[in-house]
Amino acid sequence: MVTMGYVRTRLRKDGSPRYTAYFWDVRGRERSAGTFATRKEAVRAWRRAEAGAGEGRFADLRSGRQPFARYVSLVWLANHRMEANTRQGYISVIEKYLLPEFGAIRMIEILPSHVRDFLRRLTDAGKSAMMVQRCKTVLSSIFTTALNDQVIALHPCRGVAVPPVVAKPLTIVSPAEFEAIVEALPDEQSRLLAETALEGGLRWGELTELRLGDLDPVTRMLTVARTVVELRPGYHPSGARFLVKGYPKSREFRRIKLSSTLVARIRAYAAERGLGSDDLLFTAPQSRRPTERRLLELPDPAGATAPNAAGRRYRHGTLSGYSMGRCRCSWCRAAYARYRAVRRAAGKDQPRAGRRLDTDGHIPRDWFRQRIWDPAVQAAGIGRRVRVRDLRHAHASWLLAGGADLQTVRERLGHAGLRATERYLHTLPDADDTALTAFHRTRAGIRILRDVGTSATVK
Fold first, then answer.
1. How far apart are CA 69 and CA 58, in angstroms?
2. Which SS3 state, helix, strand or coil, does residue 46 take?
3. Is 211 helix (H, G, I), strand (E, B) or coil?
4. pLDDT (tens digit, 9 = 90+) per residue, 78-108?
């Protein structure tokens, strides 16, 4: 087998020569190292390429000449294994930021200077440090695969710095604030959901995928064995809205002990609703649309809508009231719902995917936040934004402030390491009171000793 590279001379239409360098890779396949104006440059090229091939670092020029957009769509996305929700997020970044910047450029032509300029322009455009870092993360993942596949010989993201993502201090929900929010929640399910989120320290996907069989009523141990993610239909294997994973985020089951009070409430709640062991504990309402029974309980529509931009008013319970008057009372919404139902029955209209809440019983995160949680926070008079995920933060902070050790809190939260748990240390407003007391006690003792010494000197 030939082990040395060589140069092949090619003639242009005008008769001038061009020199193409060839070498053999570690698998014995003939590769091109490029075409040059002089034989000397071509010889240097195949020698460099042959040395790089021996060390495992060279690029296949044929693959490297493909545009970034083609490689990402046909090679990387088609073969890169990742979670469905991760793929959804990556594709969003690729389509919005990466393809407009690098889509038409050939893979081997993208250099660190291009990546550096791209990230700097994102920063100058006001994008957050988190978004800039996310763009680099996705870009780096693409080029790492390309480097391993020998599509490129240089990793364009290596050595490129991004603005630091500054971790903001956590503002932890106090017990009094939590009680006020719970009091403002509209029903028993939402109140029990909040109590379970706080006491279990659960993520939203783990919380809304809990089933009655996950709780052992005797030992009071709750097993977190699954999570659910909400996807756009195009990213779901079967086009649905919710995808249940057979493992939590950390890919390890964990067991959490609950209080006897909470377990008793869960059992009473499940018995009242006739839940079986495989049924979801917390479910979405059946539909967004007002039912006929609810409409019958309302008084007959009277009067007209408020004036629209043109100063016109329309009768309640009519399609005009909904569309032209922009009225969203129950009667106007029912008129529009009946109109849409007639069109669908006639085959003239198709409902958008995901419009109904009762796809499979899981609670949509945004729906719960907008319709249930945020109004309760506002009614409680908290005065700042409080998210459902902040109950998980409160769980960790309250445990640590009460004397629980880091390892126990880490296991309850399902963190991969202690570093993620340490951020909850000293997050409550009175967490440093003990330290301040010790500081002032020591300072006061030093001052007393100094005063005693001064008095002795005077005598």
1. 22
2. helix
3. strand
4. 888 888 888 999 999 999 999 999 999 999 8
Whole-model pTM: value is 0.67
Longest dimension (CA), the chain: 112
**CA 33, CA 128: separation in Å to the nearest integer?**
41
Pairwise CA distance, residues 21 & 38, whole Å? 10
Q: From 195, 188, 224, select the one nearest 209 (Cα to Cα).
A: 224
* Under 8 Å between Cβ of 321 and 314: yes
Which residue, 386, 335, 345, 359, is CA-closest to 179? 386
The Cα angle at residue 381 between residues 377 and 385, in degrees rounded to 5: 50
Helix (H) or strand (E) holding 257: strand 254-257
Residue with tokens 């695969």: 145
SS3 at position 421:
helix
Rg from Cα positions in the chain = 32
Residue 146: Cβ-neighbour burial (10 angstroms; 0-12, 13-18, 19+): buried
- Residue written as token pair 């698998």: 27
